[in-house]
Design goal:
Helix content of chain B: over 70%
Strand content of chain B: under 5%
Radius of gyration of chain A: 31 Å
Largest sheet of chain B: none
Structural class of chain B: mainly alpha
Number of helices of chain A: 11
Oligomer: heterodimer
Distance between the termini of chain B: 55 Å
Distance between the termini of chain A: 56 Å
Number of strands of chain B: 0
Number of helices of chain B: 11
Strand content of chain A: under 5%
Radius of gyration of chain B: 20 Å
Chain lengths: 276, 198
Amino acid sequence: MSDTTIEPGDKENQQWLDAIAGKPDASADPTLNQQATVLRQALIKRNQEIITAIPEADPAGYERLLAELQRQGLLDDKPKVILIKLIQKVHTFLFGLLKKGMNQPSPLVNDMTFPAPVSYGPAASVWRGGASDYATHADVVSRRQATAQQLDCAIQLLSEGQVIAAVTLAAAATRVLTDLLGKDSNGTPSKLLRGFYEQIDLPDAQKNEFHIWLNEVYDWLRHADKAPDSPMEISEMEAQMWIKLGIASFSRHFNDMTPAMKLFARRSASSIPINL
Amino acid sequence: MTDEKMIQLICSGGQSAASGLKALYQSYATQVQRFCVAQGASKADAEDIWQQTAIKVVKAADSFRGDGKASAWIWQIARNNLLEHLAATSKRGAREQTVSDETWSVIDAVQTDADAVARQRSLEVDDCVSHGLGSFSRVDPDRAYALTLQMDGYSIEEVGTRIGRGTSATKQYLYEIRKKIEPYIANCFDLLKPESAR
């Protein structure tokens, strides 16, 4: 029961309430306790009738609520407005980063070519698909070369309108790069993304919202364990965002950008960031 | 998840809002609907009132400044919705009627009426008290609800949150219930006495 001070005149009332709560005071008047206990039983009975009338809330009720909220436009419009504001902030921030990267000397840009194919010998060649015209071409590449090619290809694919493949490549590269940049103790979000969030001064809830939005499409492209038949809306915006994040990550980690990355950064600077 | 976090998520929109809404539903849908039924609303009306409450919470989430408890804010919205609903269904007059001293004397007179006493004595004590509690609930549903929360082991603070009162005021409110309900059940306790003592 409550720990507030009990006035002398309220002592009986408190004892009565204690008995109503099922914790009778042994020092109270037995009649008071007896009457309160009978009333308690009546309250329990009445409460049980209410519980029977209104059982625990079911999923159908939740669906009805969602439907009503959607009908009133309370589920669609609000998130969209917030998301647009959020993306604008991130675009502005990323553009700042890319602009900064473009001004940096990039002595390694001309080295962003792949090494000549390595010969693995006949046995290895057979193991990799046979020493025929169909033999798999094999390169030994660094993380830097791999992510650079992924991002360059993503940029090229996006320019050709191949949005899905562009997202897949750019997001894969970005995930590798953010791993290289290091993760926080929980593993996610990466230090890079966390750094972005901190610099663009987003409230926690919006950071979470942005993180969910950013990963939703990529996860859908990688996995089908949840809702395998569900469709997904994939726009150019996702591809742009992932490529920008990828370039920013690449630039930060390797202190360099490929020509394609620099070109994309310049074009992004003049493009309208939001096109929902 | 705290109620404050829940409101924050609802404000955020998108997936976060969906999480917040689900938490709101899980924490409040049942309780608000039971509250409404305890206050005299039908089951169907209780769901309408709950839905209106949830919609208002979503609409006003941005305006929740976090300088008070979110639960108190949500219950305030629920109580207001119930009042609006009862007013719309012409029950408000009966519900808001304060029980004046004159009314209490009338009730006392009714309860001490020989026929009423005879009728109540014909019932078992439990049924008699249940009957009296039912009458009390119709006349003063707020106090009956507060007493139910007390029976259910809610703290003074939690009862206060539900009925929209501070801790001290809630305590005093609960103390007064003993006197208020007495006329409805006093005669029942005569049945507990030996026949010769009645």
